[in-house]
Structure formats: structure tokens, C-alpha cells
């Protein structure tokens, strides 16, 4: 099988590519240049797509003895992932840029280009498992959680859908720990074996999301109000707040009962941030759109678990499909602080069965 290995410059993608080579595939390495100012974007373990990362990816390819290329996808990344990030926050929603990157870049732009060039699949260093089972229509590929639940990335991969899953390879899905990957990299002579993991939002290299939003969207002063509409503070832009947020509110007037207050609503139309008690964050119903299903869309309530954050804990729930690519989830466990724009992923056991973008919640 001809496999295009996405080499980020990190240890995970390097070991994944090595395992693809060991499996007997014809492997070619490619580094995606996603940042317009690549030389400025790495700060320790923050950021990615720097000149350093491209060099590390090239050295990994040299050790593995595979061809290596750099593809400039920075314009596509800016026009989709970054633009979506800004527009979603501006509209009072809370996006997950990793989900959008997987949707628009890694498993659309990259995979489509790979297919056009005659590759059978794309290999990445994501932590997730693909399980092939026999079904009435023939073998079916299922997306499951990784063996190492602490590193599991099935949540951000759920947006890819079954058709793109059919052309994806995740060699690290069965590893039991990141330490195993680093040890394997060292044994293979890969210089990235001790390289720090990147974290936070890759294009916000200093970790200051509010500063990034302010620089792109400008200052937009407004009021912070309580649920009765009483002004209790001010802000420099409602776009910088998200439902469930407690820190950084800068409230000038404490609550009458002395309890902490949280963001319970963001209203871009009036540039207002609403704060209230923690119990107001309780969620019993989640509705989403742009649903992606790995099973036949369930028209009746189906028992499942719901996860709404990349590293969040799943909660007991039941799900059903709605018309026009909608999804409705009734939460039977405890869930708080869900914001429009987040990705809602539903599981049955370890298997991903569906994903949607949250449009609303109910108590």
C-alpha cells in the first residue's frame, strides 16, 4: 500500500511513519507548512510548524530512508482553521481549532491531494484505533479510543467521518503510553525522541488566546451583567469569553451571596457577557448540527456516552439523529458549562458513533 506519512516534526508522527515502513508499506513523508511566519511560531513546547519542526521532520525521514517533501498549506490553513476560529469567537461560540484542522487540512486538503497523487492512505501520529469488523456489506472500519486513554485523540478525529477513515492509518493506537513511543524513537535513532510535546493552540504560540483575539478583532468594550441585567463589570471584547469561564472576569461587584460567578452566556449582538451561579451551567440537553455518523443515524434514542471537550470525561447520555444533519443528546450524567461551537462526540463503549457541532443546550 502506498502511504503518505504526515511528519509534523514531533516524536509521534516520526514513530508512526517508522511503523508504517515496518509494516511493508511504500511510505513517503510530507511536512505541512501551515504558518505564514513559521520561523517565529515555536516557543519551547508551544506552537508548531516552525523551521525547526520542518528540519526535525526531514531528519526523521532521512533516518527512516523515505522520500520527504514540504507542502505549503498555510493559505488554506489561514482561510479555514484560523478564519473559523476568529468568526466563531466573534459570534459568541467556542470552537476547537484541532477539530477544524483535522476536518479541513489533515483529512481533506492533505488526504485529497494524497489520493490525487495515487496514495492509498494517509498515516498520522494520532492516538486512536481503527478496528475492522465483518458486516453484512463487507468489512467495516470503526474509529475507537486509543489504548492509552490519557493520550486518546478520537475526539478530535470524529469529524472526519467513515469515508475518510477508510483512507487513514493510525499506527500508535495500540501503544500503552507515550513513554513507549519515546523509547521506540530513541531505539530507532530518531533525534526527536526527547522533544517536548506541543500543546495549546498551535497558531497562538505564546498561549495568550485573548491577546490573539484582541489583536485580530480589536478592542470592543462592553458590559458584564448578572442574570438580572445588573452591570457588575466591564470587558474589552465579549468574544474573549466562553461559557463556564470563572477566571479573568474582573468583576467590580461581588455576588450578594459571596459565591463565585461564572460566564453563563455570551451575547455578541449586544456585546454583553452574562455571569451567574455555577448551577446555571448545568446541562441536560445538547443539540448540534453538521452531524457526522459512523453508523446509520439513529432515529430512536440510543444509549451512549457524550464527550464535549478533547480531554474531558465522558458522561452517560442517549442520542438520536434529527432532520437536516442534526443531533440531539439527552444527558443523564452530570455535565456543566457546554458552549455553542464545541464539538459533541458520542461513543458506545470505545467506539465513536457520531459527532456534531453544538448549537444549543438546555437545562
From TrEMBL:
**Annotated active site:** 101 (nucleophile), 202 (cysteine persulfide intermediate)
Q: Name one GO cellular component term.
A: cytoplasm
Q: Where is the tRNA-specific 2-thiouridylase MnmA-like central domain?
A: 211-276
Tell me which residues bind ATP.
Answer: 6-13, 32, 125
**Reaction catalysed by this chain?**
S-sulfanyl-L-cysteinyl-[protein] + uridine(34) in tRNA + AH2 + ATP = 2-thiouridine(34) in tRNA + L-cysteinyl-[protein] + A + AMP + diphosphate + H(+)
Q: What class of enzyme is it?
A: transferase
Its EC number(s): 2.8.1.13
What are the residue positions of the site described as Interaction with tRNA?
126, 342
A Gene Ontology MF term for this entry?
Answer: tRNA-uridine 2-sulfurtransferase activity
Gene3D superfamilies in UniProt: Adenine nucleotide alpha hydrolases-like domains, HUPs, Translation factors
Entry keyword tRNA-binding: yes
CDD domains, per the entry: MnmA_TRMU-like
Record-linked InterPro entries? MnmA-like, MnmA-like_C, MnmA-like_central, MnmA-like_central_sf, Rossmann-like_a/b/a_fold
A Pfam match: tRNA_Me_trans_C
Query: What subcellular compartments does it reside in?
Result: Cytoplasm
- Renumbered to this chain, region (Interaction with tRNA) spans 151-153
The record's keywords, sorted A to Z, are: ATP-binding, Cytoplasm, Disulfide bond, Nucleotide-binding, RNA-binding, Transferase, tRNA processing, tRNA-binding
What biological-process terms (Gene Ontology) are attached?
tRNA wobble position uridine thiolation
Q: Which residues form the tRNA-specific 2-thiouridylase MnmA-like C-terminal domain?
A: 289-358
What family is this? Belongs to the MnmA/TRMU family.
Listed HAMAP family: tRNA_thiouridyl_MnmA
What exactly does this protein do?
Catalyzes the 2-thiolation of uridine at the wobble position (U34) of tRNA, leading to the formation of s(2)U34.
State the name under which the record lists this protein: tRNA-specific 2-thiouridylase MnmA
Organism in which the protein naturally occurs:
Cellulomonas carbonis T26
| Gene this chain is encoded by | mnmA
Amino acid at each position: 500500500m502506498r502511504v503518505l506519512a504526515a511528519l509534523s516534526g514531533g516524536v509521534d508522527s516520526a514513530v508512526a511513519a517508522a511503523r508504517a515502513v515496518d509494516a511493508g508499506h511504500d511510505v513517503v513523508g510530507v511536512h505541512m507548512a501551515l504558518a505564514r511566519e513559521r520561523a517565529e511560531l515555536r516557543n519551547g513546547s508551544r506552537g508548531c510548524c516552525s523551521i525547526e519542526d520542518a528540519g526535525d521532520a526531514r531528519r526523521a525521514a532521512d533516518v527512516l530512508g523515505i522520500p520527504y517533501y514540504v507542502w505549503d498549506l498555510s493559505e488554506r490553513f489561514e482561510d479555514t482553521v484560523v478564519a473559523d476560529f476568529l468568526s466563531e469567537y466573534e459570534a459568541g461560540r467556542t470552537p476547537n481549532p484541532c477539530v477544524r484542522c483535522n476536518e479541513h487540512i489533515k483529512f481533506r486538503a492533505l488526504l485529497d491531494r494524497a489520493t490525487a497523487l495515487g496514495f492509498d492512505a494517509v498515516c498520522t501520529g494520532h492516538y486512536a484505533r481503527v478496528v475492522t469488523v465483518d458486516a453484512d456489506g463487507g468489512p467495516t472500519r470503526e474509529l475507537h479510543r486509543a489504548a492509552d486513554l490519557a493520550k486518546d485523540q478520537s475526539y478530535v478525529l470524529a469529524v472526519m467521518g467513515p469515508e475518510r477513515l477508510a483512507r487513514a492509518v493510525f499506527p500508535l493506537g495500540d501503544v500503552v503510553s507515550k513513554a513507549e513511543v519515546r523509547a521506540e524513537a530513541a531505539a530507532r535513532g530518531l533525534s526527536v525522541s526527547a522533544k517536548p510535546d506541543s500543546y495549546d493552540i498551535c497558531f497562538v504560540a505564546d498561549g495568550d488566546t485573548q491577546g490573539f483575539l484582541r489583536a485580530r478583532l480589536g478592542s470592543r468594550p462592553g458590559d458584564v451583567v448578572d442574570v438580572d441585567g445588573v452591570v457588575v463589570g466591564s470587558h474589552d471584547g465579549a468574544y474573549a469569553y466562553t461559557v463556564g469561564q470563572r477566571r479573568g472576569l474582573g468583576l467590580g461587584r461581588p455576588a450578594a451571596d459571596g459565591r463565585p460567578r461564572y460566564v453563563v452566556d455570551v451575547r455578541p449582538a449586544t456585546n454583553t457577557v452574562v455571569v451567574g451561579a455555577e448551577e446555571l451551567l448545568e446541562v441536560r440537553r445538547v443539540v448540534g448540527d453538521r452531524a457526522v455518523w459512523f453508523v446509520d443515524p439513529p432515529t430512536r434514542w440510543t444509549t451512549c456516552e457524550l464527550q464535549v471537550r478533547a480531554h474531558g470525561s465522558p458522561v452517560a447520555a442517549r442520542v438520536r439523529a434529527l432532520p437536516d444533519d442534526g443531533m440531539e443528546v439527552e444527558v443523564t450524567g452530570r455535565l456543566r458549562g457546554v458552549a455553542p461551537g464545541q464539538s459533541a462526540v458520542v461513543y458506545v463503549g470505545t467506539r465513536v458513533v457520531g459527532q456534531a457541532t453544538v448549537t444549543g443546550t438546555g437545562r
